[in-house]
Amino acid sequence: MGLELYLDLLSQPCRALYIFARSNGIPFEFKQVELMKGQHRTEEFQKVNVLMKVPALRDGSFTLAESIAILLYLARKFKTPDHWYPSDLQKRARVDEYLSWQHVNIRGKGSKLFLMKVLLPLLTGQPLPPEKLESVTEELNVVLKQFEEKFLQDKPFIAGSEVSLADLVALVELMQPVGAGYDLFEERPKLAEWRRRVEEAVGKQLFQEAHEGILNIKNLTADKIAPELLEHFKHQLLKQASQN
């Protein structure tokens, strides 16, 4: 049994893994797990990841959850070019620093905007009140400013002159709000240039292919979501919205 990656490309971490594996010529079997259909909750998938989350990896009898752990596993197993996870102590520390920071910042705020702007209106039939949307957008803008000033600065990439896992993980997360209709690159020339460099480094066609689903998410309708997930999603999102 070869390497299997269990992915749904609507998920940011899944896209990072897919792009990383494909751009580095890593052979794997793409096992699609459609989150909206609840396929991550099946008994079969729980044998791969008892946490019922994607991405997940199976390599022979070995299984692994958590996207950062999987990215590092692939980088080490397949000895990918050094720039992805540099051997230089301080460059690697820069990558680790971003990967440690991003979870509740870029990922947290970008995901929240996406969920509030796309999924909540879909489930409730009501658009998010303008003041709520403004608040969620401002939360994201704060961390975008931190990302530019602290992590990107005036460098081509986060760790210096070459692309790394940090850049790939960052960019797939920032595409989630773009899919929701918030073009955060439009008035941020430094971010837009960085995006162009990252896309060129991994391959523009591959990047576009991986993002086709999320950039067409406006076509999602409630009947495409598993009935048992509808109420669960609705409850969770309304709870988040009320905390804003």
UniProtKB/TrEMBL annotation:
<dbReference type="GO" id="GO:0006749">
    <property type="term" value="P:glutathione metabolic process"/>
</dbReference>
<dbReference type="GO" id="GO:0005737">
    <property type="term" value="C:cytoplasm"/>
</dbReference>
<dbReference type="GO" id="GO:0004364">
    <property type="term" value="F:glutathione transferase activity"/>
</dbReference>
<dbReference type="InterPro" id="IPR036282">
    <property type="entry name" value="Glutathione-S-Trfase_C_sf"/>
</dbReference>
<keyword id="KW-0808">Transferase</keyword>
<dbReference type="InterPro" id="IPR004045">
    <property type="entry name" value="Glutathione_S-Trfase_N"/>
</dbReference>
<dbReference type="Pfam" id="PF00043">
    <property type="entry name" value="GST_C"/>
</dbReference>
<protein>
    <recommendedName>
        <fullName>glutathione transferase</fullName>
        <ecNumber>2.5.1.18</ecNumber>
    </recommendedName>
</protein>
<dbReference type="InterPro" id="IPR040079">
    <property type="entry name" value="Glutathione_S-Trfase"/>
</dbReference>
<comment type="subunit">
    <text>Homodimer.</text>
</comment>
<dbReference type="Pfam" id="PF02798">
    <property type="entry name" value="GST_N"/>
</dbReference>
<dbReference type="InterPro" id="IPR036249">
    <property type="entry name" value="Thioredoxin-like_sf"/>
</dbReference>
<dbReference type="InterPro" id="IPR040077">
    <property type="entry name" value="GST_C_Theta"/>
</dbReference>
<dbReference type="InterPro" id="IPR004046">
    <property type="entry name" value="GST_C"/>
</dbReference>
<dbReference type="InterPro" id="IPR051369">
    <property type="entry name" value="GST_Theta"/>
</dbReference>
<feature type="domain" description="GST N-terminal">
    <location>
        <begin position="1"/>
        <end position="82"/>
    </location>
</feature>
<comment type="similarity">
    <text>Belongs to the GST superfamily. Theta family.</text>
</comment>
<dbReference type="InterPro" id="IPR010987">
    <property type="entry name" value="Glutathione-S-Trfase_C-like"/>
</dbReference>
<feature type="domain" description="GST C-terminal">
    <location>
        <begin position="88"/>
        <end position="229"/>
    </location>
</feature>
<dbReference type="InterPro" id="IPR040075">
    <property type="entry name" value="GST_N_Theta"/>
</dbReference>
<keyword id="KW-0963">Cytoplasm</keyword>
